[in-house]
Amino acid sequence: xxxxxxxxxxxxxxxxxxxxxxxxxxxxxxxxxxxxxxxxxxxxxxxxxxxxxxxxxxxxxxxxxxxxxxxxxxxxxxxxxxxxxxxxxxxxxxxxxxxxxxxxxxxxxxxxxxxxxxxxxxxxxxxxxxxxxxxxxxxxxxxxxxxxxxxxxxxxxxxxxxxxxxxxxxxxxxxxxxxxxxxxxxxxxxxxxxxxxxxxxxxxxxxxxxxxxxxxxxxxxxxxxxxxxxxxxxxxxxxxxxxxxxxxxxxxxxxxxxxxxxxxxxxxxxxxxxxxxxxxxxxxxxxxxxxxxxxxxxxxxxxxxxxxxxxxxxxxxxxxxxxxxxxxxxxxxxxxxxxxxxxxxxxxxxxxxxxxxxxxxxxxxxxxxxxxxxxxx
Amino acid sequence: xxxxxxxxxxxxxxxxxxxxxxxxxxxxxxxxxxxxxxxxxxxxxxxxxxxxxxxxxxxxxxxxxxxxxxxxxxxxxxxxxxxxxxxxxxxxxxxxxxxxxxxxxxxxxxxxxxxxxxxxxxxxxxxxxxxxxxxxxxxxxxxxxxxxxxxxxxxxxxxxxxxxxxxxxxxxxxxxxxxxxxxxxxxxxxxxxxxxxxxxxxxxxxxxxxxxxxxxxxxxxxxxxxxxxxxxxxxxxxxxxxxxxxxxxxxxxxxxxxxxxxxxxxxxxxxxxxxxxxxxxxxxxxxxxxxxxxxxxxxxxxxxxxxxxxxxxxxxxxxxxxxxxxxxxxxxxxxxxxxxxxxxxxxxxxxxxxxxxxxxxxxxxxxxxxxxxxxxxxxxxxxxxxxxxxxxxxxxxxxxxxxxxxxxxxxxxxxxxxxxxxxxxxxxxxxxxxxxxxxxxxxxxxxxxxxxxxxxxxxxxxxxxxxxxxxxxxxxxxxxxxxxxxxxxxxxxxxxxxxxxxxxxxxx
Lengths: 377, 508
Ligand SMILES: Nc1ncnc2c1ncn2[C@@H]1O[C@H](COP(=O)(O)OP(=O)(O)OP(=O)(O)O)[C@@H](O)[C@H]1O
Ligand SMILES: [Mg+2]
Hints:
heterodimer; A: 377 residues; 78% helix; B: 508 residues; alpha/beta; Rossmann fold; six-stranded mixed β-sheet; binds adenosine-5'-triphosphate; binds magnesium ion; transmembrane helix (chain A); Xylose transport system permease protein XylH (chain A); membrane (chain A); sugar transport (chain A)
């Protein structure tokens, strides 16, 4: 049983190893600066934007489609928020809601063409990408729009005070313990075999340690960065959606076998639209955070970011043919990409080398994954 | 005395958590047609995949001798070179290529890297003619029926000169006439000196065409005998380890007066070509507790009928559908399921299963509401509900978390059945429900059908196996070219009558 489980998790395992290797290499090359609390906080912040987009992208890819528009959607939504706030003096909350609304509309647009008009997602979202890019530049009049209100900028720049960090960490641990207990209870109720109590306890202690070490480490600098907190909450919510809800199951079935899903009574069109709404909505959220972090919206914001999101998904083991994907793995994928960016900047590697290295890592990561899968057959 | 062409010695093959083969031994004589039979999941397909190099040398224990020499196949190409050709149970054709391209896939006739299409078509046509198969070479695989696909698969396997031809359940999807054709092909091959290994759950075929028969059970060889020493009952006893006195359980359910499904003058036109009528003025009804059999040849419109009523077939449709006394419009399968209908499709791979997902996920797919609260799934409840069916219809698996694609063909079919039954349908459509299922499991499924009928379910069963239609149905209707041409009650029906009407021989 444990052997089986290991086989199932082998790609997650490989991914973690490669993350450790990357970290070790940069740590050595940068004389340890890579692991300074300050840099770790920075790395965490860099991960968030791509990670949030990658969460949405995972749903799209799992459903058997692709969304090329997320980078431009992110830039466009960020510009919408900035224009409304800087030029039209909107408050932070309405500006954010408007930007998210733009994201959702964009998703409905793609979903409509893909689900109801049968346009391949690649084309529909390529169109969307150009449209949003144009809209972004036109709306912002090719200018940098700044500065944002302080309350807005906080979303991207603030740190959560140390003591609140500890409280959040503790809540997370308590929630986890409760869920482990409920899980055992439910298993007993259905007369299923439960794993030995020791295993559950060990697992709980392990995760508790990880949470507390992370909080402690980030607190050594200024605390948990706000965007990281937002990303973690989103990851949690959408992980739940993917694994534990009817919606998530429908999406996975849709990508696994469209016809079978239809014949099982799943509303395939509706679900397809939802998938694109999730993707565009999260891209807009990423755009808001980006604008907050830079304290400005720029005409080039989001350019090429769709590729980072796709890369994070692929490194995270999401199957390009649909039906397979996991959010924690995708987050690790985003972390790998961000760690590369961060590390290479730290050691002052020239930009062109950075592209080449990222390309190579992407290729090798996927290759290692396919190899391990065919091995375990 | 014939010499031995193939010997497999002490073959053992393990998958994570399952020992699929345990010291299996198989000896096949030159020029024989050798049957390999056993229950679902016994290991037949696995054994043949070992032989054909799908599972490379050294991923199994034991040895293979071909013509007395040890064979070490690392790929299927190696085995092809050694004269072993295989037709897999799960068809392996490229859906978007046409028939001719599929037949010569990977070995297209070419000169200097340029394909000579004329030669490809010429050779392909010659192969078809040799074997007496009629298919349109330029049609894409996805546009022809499963039966025809099966024939293409056979032609493809024969496009290389094979000494040993393995056929893994080739007849599961074929109609009576196509089966006859296949039998004829096998006889021709035999006359040419080709050795065939035939896997089949249809024991009458085995008795008819094979010379010897090997039975395996739970991954172990039970025995090999000359066919003359065997009969169907003996084979079943070897397969199951117990006797099966009856093929069809007695039906105890009473047919109630309540009409659960009534279809009135249903007409359907093709989605691509609006002038083409697929279903013509179909009317029938099924009562609670009744089993209605629909017989007919491939292409008679039986599957289209079920799919149209179920809201899956697109295209113009006229006529009335009344469920349990209420006239309904069914535009999507979702609607049909909500109205209490269930459908088990004939094409489990394409239309039925999400192969990469687990047994649980597949089984609960149509009843997610039942295993959730406010849209949130209860994983333990899912397993609990699935386990009920794993027990009642006997899905052979180490755990319900296993991916469906790792199950044997017959067990995949059972998962599909489980999904449909979990919705507790009032009206149940079964399209070839026992395709690829072993004799013992068939009996269990028949029993289950009778139980459902006794609980008041109305069942419509499409089947190409005439004994099954006759043995299970209270009433049989026969379809021909989109029309219902006749109807018989349980006492009147006979194989001859069905054949006559199904082939259009009695069109009045
Ligand atoms: N790739 C795989 N991974 C894990 N288990 C497998 C795999 N392939 C087959 N099995 C298991 O090996 C056993 C034998 O399967 P096999 O397909 O050989 O059965 P079969 O005799 O052909 O049955 P059927 O009549 O249903 O086709 C089954 O228990 C099946 O679940
Ligand atoms: Mg098989």
